[in-house]
Structure formats: C-alpha cells, structure tokens
Design goal:
By secondary structure, the chain is of the alpha+beta class. It has a domain of about 210 residues: Alpha/Beta hydrolase fold, catalytic domain (Rossmann fold), CATH 3.40.50.1820. Helices cover about 15% and strands about 35% of the residues. It contains ten helices and 38 strands. The chain is globular. The relative contact order is 0.10.
C-alpha cells in the first residue's frame, strides 16, 4: 500500500538564547538529588542523597536485600560533616549499625540494629569524619577536627572513641596539620593513614604511614611507607584481602596504583591515566578488591572515565565496555561492583554491574526526568594551543533544540565555564546547567585549564605560582579558539564560575578584554582577604598558587580583581551564600561596591542560610533563571521563560 511521505519538519528560526526549552529549573529540581558515598554491607547498598527540596539535607539511604529502598536516618537529621568544610566520609555501616555525623551539632550518632538513634558523642567543638570500626577493641577510629581553642587554628588528629565509654575518647595519632584515610588491616594488627603539612594540599605532597596496633589498642612502631621528601601526592590507601597494603601515588606523574610487599613498593599497572582525583573530600573511592589477584578500578583519560579490572599478578589492565563517560565511588561485593556513573545523555545514577553476566542495573537515578534526546547537546572534547608548546583541553557543547535554529547569519553567544578547585576537572557527563543554556541557544565551553586534574601532576602544577595567569589565559584562548572556528559570536562571549572558578571569571573580566559579561558564583575577588580569612584546610593554599604571604603581598594585590576594577568595563552578576565559611560574603560585596561606584552594571543576589555552593531548591532555581535573564539584557535577546527580572545596582 502506498504511503505518502511525511512532511519535512522545519525548525523555527529564532534568536540564539531566546529558544523555548523543556529543560526548566522546576523540572530539574523537582525530581533531582545529589548522589555519593556508596558502600555495601551484607548485600545491602548504601549511599548519601543531597535533597534540594528538603533544604539541602543529606540523607543516608539503603537498598535492602529484598529490594526495598529506605531512609536510614530520621527526618530531623542531616548526615554531613564539616571537617575541612568540604566534608565527605560522613557515615559508616558496621555490624553495630550505621554511624553518622549530624550536621547541626557535628556529633556522632548510631542507628542501631533495632533502628533506634543513639547519640555517641557530646562535644560541641569537635567535628568527625572518615570513620573505621575496630571490632577487636569495639571502638571507632576517625579523623577529628578540634575547634575548642578559638585563639589558634583547629587541631586535626586521628582519635579513638570506645563505644562502651565514648567519653573516654582519646588521641591516637597527632603532630601533622592534616589527616585522612585511617584504615585498619583486616586482622586488626596494623593501622595506616595519610598525613600532610602546611602549605601542602593533599594533591601536592602527602605521607603514608603504617603502625602496629598492640593488644591494648595502642599504636607502636610508626613507619613512613611513602612520601616524605619524595614530593608525591599519595591517596586512597586500602588493605587487600590478604592484608597487603595498596595506595595511589603520582610519583610517575600519573595517579597510579601501587602495593607494598616485603618493604618494597611496586606499581601494579603503569598508565598515563589518573586512578584518583584530588582529595577535596573524605572517602573518595576509585578502586576496590575483587580478590587477592584482581582489582576493580576507575581511571580517567582525556576527559572521560573508564572502569577496568586489573590483575595484580600479571599486571595487566582490561577496560570494560560501558556507555559511561563519568564514573566514581567504586565498591565491590560478591561479583558485583557498584559505582556512580553518567554519560553524555544520561544523568548520574548508582549502577550495580554484574561482572560475570556483564549486566548493569540502575539502583538510583539522580534525576527521574526522561529528557527528549533532541534537546541534549553532546559534548565534544577539544584541545587548543595556549602557548607555543602547550595545549589545554575543554568540552564544547553546541546549541541544541529540536524545535529551534538560529537566525540567518547569526552565531550563538558563548558561555565559558571555569570550574572550581582550581584542581577540579570538567567531565563529559550529562550536566543540567549546560543543557539549560545550550537548549536555549547558547554554545557552552567547559574548560580544563592548566591546573586541572585528570591530565597528570605536571599539568596540575602548571598553576603553581600562576593562579590568575594560566587559568585566565587558557579560558580566554579557549573562547577565542571557538570564536575563530566560527562556532560562536566573538562579540558575545561570557564567562561563569564558582569559588575558584569565580576568581578565574573575575580575573578574566578584569585583566582581558575577551569577555563581554560574567557571572561569579561565590567567587574570590580579593586574594589578601582569602589568605587571611579562609578556613584551615585552604589557609596556606595560596602559598603554592600565588606565593608566600605576606612576603609576596604585591602579587596578591596585583592579581586581585577587586584592585583592578578600573580595567573592568563589562557587566557582572554575583551570587553569594551569606553563611559561606570558605569564600566569605565580603569577597562579593567588595567587588559589587567597587563596580557600582565606577558605574558598571552589576547585580548582587545573596541568600540567607546558604553556604559554599547552593543547596536549597528555590535558590538554585533563582540563580539559574537570574543568570539567564542577565545574559538576555546584555546580549539583547528576549527570554522565552517567565523570569523575575534582576535588579541592576
């Protein structure tokens, strides 16, 4: 039977930026949660959800053996630690029950086998993280941050908390400025840990130490295994099933996996790839053990992540064929591996993968939306020259919408994204912020400037002494590269970023003439203030990124955007949490005041109760919509969305 051809679908022509999109803030937030900290205990899978619709509360969730999904902690609790301010390692599942740190009071609690919540500690000036259970002495071993002496910086130690008498808490290991990853061997006879000293960050130089545990539970014979003066960043120590100690080090420029056998250190499998990420938070987990001879691990290469099995005997690596480009938080149990993963077209989800059957099962999605694939822009990995002999990297997203195309002879505005850290890395997984803008007609360029992780220690250290120079140069060169390719309008280039990315944003606006607008999300504007006022974890970070303060005070002044307002001539929008302890609100307020006095259009939106990164749904919604409205006024297009206007000061 003859079937007439379907009429050809013609996209509507409309100004870039003005396109109607189904990817709205309401849809994004109503069914969205943050996922992380996966663990498995006795066939039950646990994880943490950050729920924006519950005021940013962190909830421990478990999938029971019968498939039932349950919240572990009562509704009045928030499982989030403030150690290092960035937290992580907020809970631990044991045979005694689930231990967790509650955000409000930072005390430890236990959900016991009968589902009763018991308060373990009552120390208002202590914070706890990264717990392990010592069943041989019925106690917790964890990192503690002591804020009791207000005249000095907090004191970090490793402590033991006897469960029979929590008030008998005592320090087990002390002397370093920072500690992480206390890990007890399976036989309970040895404890290892990571430590480091100012001005290092945990991705600069760290130490791996091991000590014996005697019958009384005290440590003896501390031995430095790796680190010291060897200038390597060690992380994620784990005891193998036979109590062989493994760890990750970048001693060969790349974060590879090593083992300690007979006082000898050897690389399990050497690759120009990263098997770890910068340890901004506790309990990062990039590998686990299948058995004595096999490891399951995730590694990153050229902006994408891969899951692989590694033979510790044959020293071989086999990459699994999976559709994901972003993978983290890997744990193994009984022939199944669980991990958090995303792809360019799929939201981050907790995946359970059967190694024998080679089958994947989705345990929990971070977003229940089923997006029309014709709205999704697929990221393209690009490299571009930044000096005569060096390249940098980025992920480029073209405008994409099933119903719209741009006007004739019009090129799209470009948003350059400068990630935080500044050691962060932009991944090629589905990001709703990117799709929010690209589906409305923006081109988006997510830049992995020099200093980013994922490309080796040498690439990461390009920023040492050069923060505000290399990152600004790379973001600017990236924008111009895309414009010269004809992929974006050179006259409509914007830059946005949060925290350290906010600094890069403001510095690029102040010290180059490439961009015509910018959005700073809790960004740094005054390096001197940051050096004086930030929390302990990052209090000496700028020694490496800029120079030792106050000896290099001149550099701090020269590179601070707040001191270069006279060079800045384009509009800026600022977003700031008023409870931010990492980048204090005065960082934004100083800049806003200076721009207002100069007569440059500026918008300032501050949120009560928000900290470093916004967690409440209404504030996330307002931030995205306000930024879109801001761009519409600067780049002269009309928003298709109904948005509350922003007020220029």
């Amino acid at each position: 039977m003859y079937k007439p051809p379907k009429p050809k679908f013609t996209k509507q022509k409309a100004a870039f930026g003005s396109w109607e999109s189904t990817i709205t803030t309401d849809l994004m937030l109503n069914s969205s949660v943050g996922l992380g900290e996966i663990s498995i205990f006795e066939n039950e899978i646990y994880w943490v959800e950050m729920r924006a619709n519950e005021g940013g509360r962190y909830v421990i969730v478990k999938k029971a053996a019968d498939g039932q999904e349950l919240d572990v902690i009562p509704s009045e609790f928030n499982a989030r630690t403030r150690v290092h301010e960035y937290g992580g390692g907020s809970y631990l599942v044991t045979e005694r029950g689930v231990f967790f740190t509650n955000f409000t009071d930072q005390d430890l609690y236990l959900i016991d086998a009968t589902n009763v919540c018991i308060k373990i500690t009552d120390q208002k000036d202590y914070r706890y993280a990264d717990m392990v259970f010592d069943k041989y002495h019925d106690r917790l071993i964890c990192v503690r941050e002591d804020h009791s002496d207000k005249t000095c910086e907090p004191i970090n130690t490793i402590v033991v908390i006897p469960l029979s008498d929590p008030d008998a808490e005592k320090v087990l290991v002390e002397g370093a400025d920072f500690y992480s990853n206390p890990r007890l061997s399976h036989d309970g006879k040895n404890l290892c840990w990571i430590s480091w000293f100012h001005p290092n960050m945990p991705w600069d130089d760290t130490n791996l130490t091991i000590a014996n545990i005697n019958s009384k539970g005290e440590i003896e014979k501390e031995t430095l295994i790796a680190g010291g003066e060897d200038h390597e960043a060690i992380c994620q120590p784990l005891w193998g099933p036979d109590d062989t100690l493994y760890f990750i080090s970048d001693r060969n420029n790349w974060w590879n996996i090593y083992s300690v056998k007979d006082n000898s250190i050897e690389c399990i499998v050497e690759r120009e790839a990263e098997f770890a990420v910068p340890q901004w938070s506790f309990r990062e987990c990039n590998y686990d053990f299948i058995n004595n001879d096999s490891i399951i691990a995730v590694y990153r290469h050229q902006g994408s992540a891969y899951l692989a099995t590694i033979s510790t005997v044959g020293k071989t690596l086999e990459t699994l064929s999976l559709p994901y480009t972003d993978i983290e938080s890997v744990v193994y149990n009984q022939n199944r591996v669980c991990f958090l993963a995303a792809s360019p077209t799929d939201f981050a989800s907790i995946i359970e993968f059967d190694l024998e059957q080679q089958e994947a099962n989705i345990i929990r999605k971070s977003n229940q939306l089923s997006l029309d694939q014709k709205y999704i822009s697929i990221g393209e990995s690009i490299s571009f020259p930044v000096t005569d002999d060096k390249n940098a990297h980025a992920i480029f997203y073209r405008p994409q919408n099933r119903y719209f195309t741009g006007l004739d002879n019009e090129k799209p505005p470009l948003i350059v994204m400068s990630h935080g850290g500044p050691t962060g890395e932009s991944h090629n997984g589905l990001k709703m912020v990117v799709q929010f803008f690209s589906s409305r007609g923006f081109a988006v360029l997510d830049v992995n400037y020099g200093g980013s992780s994922g490309y080796g220690r040498e690439y990461r250290q390009r920023l040492n002494g050069n923060w505000g120079i290399v990152d600004v140069n790379d973001c600017s060169k990236a924008a111009l590269y895309v414009a010269e390719k004809g992929w974006a309008d050179k006259k409509r280039l914007a830059i946005r970023g949060g925290s350290a990315g906010g600094f890069t944003t403001l510095a690029a606006l102040a010290f180059t003439d490439v961009f015509k607008a910018g959005a700073s999300h809790y960004g740094v504007s005054d390096l001197e203030s940051l050096a004086k006022e930030t929390h302990k974890f990052e209090s000496r970070y700028l020694d490496t990124l800029i120079g030792i303060y106050p000896q290099e005070k001149k550099l701090y002044k020269q590179r601070s955007p707040v001191n270069a307002v006279d060079k800045l001539s384009c509009p800026v929008i600022f977003f700031q949490g008023l409870e931010d302890k990492i980048v204090l609100p005065n960082q934004a307020e100083m800049m806003v005041k200076a721009l207002k006095e100069k007569g440059i259009p500026v918008v300032y939106i501050a949120y009560e109760g928000e900290q470093h990164g916004f967690r409440e749904a209404k504030n996330i919604k307002r931030t995205l919509e306000a930024e879109l409205y801001f761009y519409s006024t600067i780049f002269d297009f009309e928003c298709a969305d109904e948005i509350e206007p922003v007020e220029f000061l």
